[in-house]
Every structure is written in C-alpha cells, then in structure tokens.
Amino acid sequence: MAVITIEGLTKRFGEVVAVDDLSFEVDQGTVVGFLGPNGAGKTTTLRTLLGLVTPTTGTARIDGRPYRALADPIRHVGALLEASSFHPGRSARNHLRVVATAAGLPLDRADQVLDQVGLAGAARRRVGGFSLGMRQRLGLATALLGDPRVLVLDEPANGLDPQGVHWLRGFLRQLADQGRTVLVSSHVLAEVAQTVDQVVIIAGGRLVTQSTLASLTARTDQQVRVRTPQAEALRSLLAAQGIQADPDGLDQLIAAGTTTEAVGTAAAAAGIVLYEMIAERSNLEDVFLQLTSQQGAHS
Amino acid sequence: MIRLVRAELTKLASTRLVYGTAAVMAAFAVLTVAANISDRQGAPPLSADSLPMLVGGPVTLLSGAALLLGILGMAGEFRHHTITQTFLVTPDRGRVVAAKLVAYPLAGIGLALTILTFTAAVAAGRLAAKGITPSLLDARLARIVGVALLGAGLCGLLGVGVGALVRNQVAALVGVLVWVAVVEGLLMTLLNDPGLGRWLPSAAAAALTNPGGGQLSRLAGTLLLAGYALALALAGTRLVVRRDIT
C-alpha cells in the first residue's frame, strides 16, 4: 500500500521549474532512496510533501491526505530538513521540549530521543556550538520525537564524517527493521545504497527511474581483473573466445562482461599462470551518474 | 491552542534574550530611581507619595521591550529558520500566529510586572533609607502599574503583528524605529491636525499614559492599538500562510 504518493507534481519558482510533473509512490514499510544531483528538485519535492511549499500543480500526499490535513502530523510523519534550522542559543533538550510541548508529547521524550541518537551528553549544550554532524543527529532526534511510522529525511548524511555515515546507515536500517516507511534523499548513491530497498532517481525536476536497488545493480557490468605474467597471451586467448580484455599496466588485464570462472578455466586450459583474479562491478555510482546526466542533457 | 501558547513561552524562556532584556530593564530602573532621588537642587521633594513617580520611570521603556520581544519572537523564527520546525508541528499557520498573539502580550505583561515590582522594591528601599515610609495602597501607583501592564501587553501584540508582516528581523526593528522617530513626526506635521494625528499608533500609545486633552481616551487608545496590532497580524498571517518555506 502506498504511504507516500506524489502525483503530477510541478513547482515553479518564478521562471525556474524546480519540479516538473513528478510522480512516484513509496510503499508501506519500505526504505526508498530519493536520489539526484544537487538542484534536481529533491528538497522542493520533500518540502511540498511536508506542506511547507505549495505546489504549482499536482499533489503530494501521505496516507491519502496532504500533510496539512493530518490530524497529528509529527506523530504521523517525522521529518529532517536542513541542519541549520535550530535557534543557536537554545539547548538541544530545550529545542526538543519546545517541539514536544507544541505537539502535546510528554517532555521526557526529549531525553529518550537524545539518547537514541547518541546526544544525551550534549543535551544541555547550546546548539550554536554543535558540529554539523551533531546538528544532523539532533535533527534525527526531532524527527523521531513523535515516534512516527513515516520518516522523511532530506540529506541526513550531509556533513557527517565517515564514522557518522556508518552510524547513519545502521540507524536507518534499524528504523526500517522496526517497520517504518522511510524516504531518504541523497546526492550520493553510496550513502544510502546499503540501506534502501528502492530508489527514486530524479534529475532536472523530472523522474528518471523508480526501481528496486537490485534491478539498478543489474544494470552494472561485471568485469574481471587479472594479474598475470602472460598478459598478452591471455588477452588473445580471451579475444578468441569473444571476451574483450584490455591491458591495465604491464601485468594486468580487465576482462569485461565475464566471470572469474570463465577466465580461470580458459587460463588453466592454456597453461597460463595467474597471480591474482578479482571480480569487479562497475560502480553503482557510475550507473547513477550516467542516468542523471542523460536526463540533465534532455532538460 | 493552550499547548501552542505554552510552546511559545517555552521558546522565549529557553534563550537568553528575555533574561538580557530583563537585566537591562532592571539596571535602567535602578538608575532612574537613583536619578529621581538625587539630593541636588531642584529635585522634586520626596514624600510618602513619591513611590508612583519613582515606579513610573521605566514604563515607556517596558513597552519598547515588549515590542522588541514580539518582533523577535515572530520575525526571529524566519531569521533562524526555526519556522520550518514550527510549521511541521503545526501546519495550520494561522494558529501559530494566533498562539504568538496570546503568548507575547503575556510575556510583555510578565516582564513589566517583574520589573515594576523590582523598581518598587528598590524605590521603597531608597525612601526607607531616607526615613520615608511609602504607601503601597495608592490609587496613583495602581493606575501607573495598570497602564504599564496594559501598554506592555499591547506592545507585545503589536510586535508580533509587525514581525508577521515584515518577517525580516532587522528590517522590522529598523522599520519600527524609523516609523516612531521620523514617519509619525512627518505625518503629524503633514496632517497638521491633532484631530487626525491622535489616531496614529504613537498617539494611541500616549493616550494610555496621558489620556484626554486632545488625545484619545484611555479605552479608545487601547482599542486603537489593539486594532493596529490585529490588522498587522492579520495582514502578516495572510502573507505567512501563502508563503513557501524554503
């Protein structure tokens, strides 16, 4: 069942078309990566979904209703938007208590969610002194305050160091395992590739593709990197079998569209010595770049 | 609605602005009391009835402080982008402005009450040191306190209205200063008619402390100021409701 439904969404800011007739759905209990280069329209789409931006045409709904019509919005949908939207003079705990008060949530939820994102030690510190990573965690804590079933996270990995990104992946996985529906945007596929079930890719405000991560992975090409003292002999042997292999340095070959089994068997039959063999996939990132740049050229 | 008002008061209480404002007001109160109690020649003679005069010192400034808190309370949310979170919790933007229209008059009144109590304590102490026992049950004192609270409440309301309409915090503050210091004076001259001039906001505020004599009555001044505040807030709300929060 679709929890999030974007239908024919278009948003113009003056002359600029930020989102152009975009439609996609997010099913219950799935984690969907919302991907696209900077300026693709991700943030505008998410802000429209959250009732902050009024669409020019089209609709963005959560459980069949616009965000503004939800009875208890932050218990229903948790949102993380930009990392800078805190009052610098307010402490982390007080920021959360303000939100909890307005939403009618118990005040001790503030300490619970701070604990959940690992900020309990900084609860009383003013947000003005927080690093970008700490702000992102506080933003996530805010999103979780109402214990919502749906989470909308805009670039949560922005500004996180490698440890932070690693932590975020585990955190998203945990949210998914709890059966929550998560729509998470990123301009770097690798940040979310290990976590998401599906991807929605947009560029220039238009949908490029919506697919499972598996079918996106299937678009990548497999190749085999071989290190051998008889590189030229192996190259012509593989070429005879219709496998293209290109030299990479003096003693290495990269054989495209084949498997380690095929290369190993062929080499053994011809008595060619192999030192090392690695199966490689062309990067998911390359597929992503290719998809989004094609679309960019169209618009 | 009550929880939204409480959230607004929590916002105010969880930053340093209101405490800094109160500290400045308190310092000003101590100074005015000291200045009015000086022993130099020509200083008004002190008596048991001096308390209202001494307490009345910070009244105008308190209204200014309430105006400031109201403006920063509304426009500051745009300045710090906290408006995003506020509207996520309460997507009905009109209710957010309405909650501020309740919270900031309360905050202004609370601030005024605190400072006036403090001023009265300081003044009573200074009088007592001179062997004068001031009377607290004084109709003039009650009137000054009442007017001060009314003025602070209305200015809190007005501040929220200005902040909703202008949204740019600096522009709102500068705009209010320019309005009070320049525009009203010009309008007063151009109109050249105290009958029309008394309908200006400053004149309405002046009618609170000093009614009659060409000015409006205190009630008319109160209603007029509240009217200005609500008109600004309504116009501001219309803009805020339509505006994209990006």
Structural summary, described in words:
The complex is a heterodimer of chains A (about 300) and B (about 250). By secondary structure, chain A is α/β, with parallel strands linked by helices. Chain A folds into 2 domains: about 1-215, P-loop containing nucleotide triphosphate hydrolases (Rossmann fold, 3-Layer(aba) Sandwich); about 220-280, Alpha-Beta Plaits, CATH 3.30.70. Helices cover about 35% and strands about 30% of the residues of chain A. In chain A, strands 5-6-7-3-8-9 form a 6-stranded mixed sheet, with helices on both faces. In chain A, helix 4 packs across helix 5. With about 250 residues, chain B is mainly alpha-helical. Chain B has one domain. Helix content of chain B is about 80%, strand content about 0%. Chain B has helices at about 1-15, 15-35, 50-55, 60-80, 80-90, 95-130, 140-165, 170-190, 195, 200-210, 220-240. In chain B, helix 4 (about 60-80) packs across helix 5, helix 4 (about 60-80) runs parallel beside helix 7 (about 140-165) and helix 6 packs antiparallel against helix 7 (about 140-165). The longest helix of chain B is centred in the middle third of the chain and has 37 residues, at about 95-130. Chain B is globular, with a radius of gyration of 19 Å. Chain B starts with a helix and ends with a helix. Classes of the chains: A alpha/beta (about 300), B mainly alpha (about 250). Chains A and B meet through helix 1 and helix 3 of A and helix 1 and helix 5 of B.
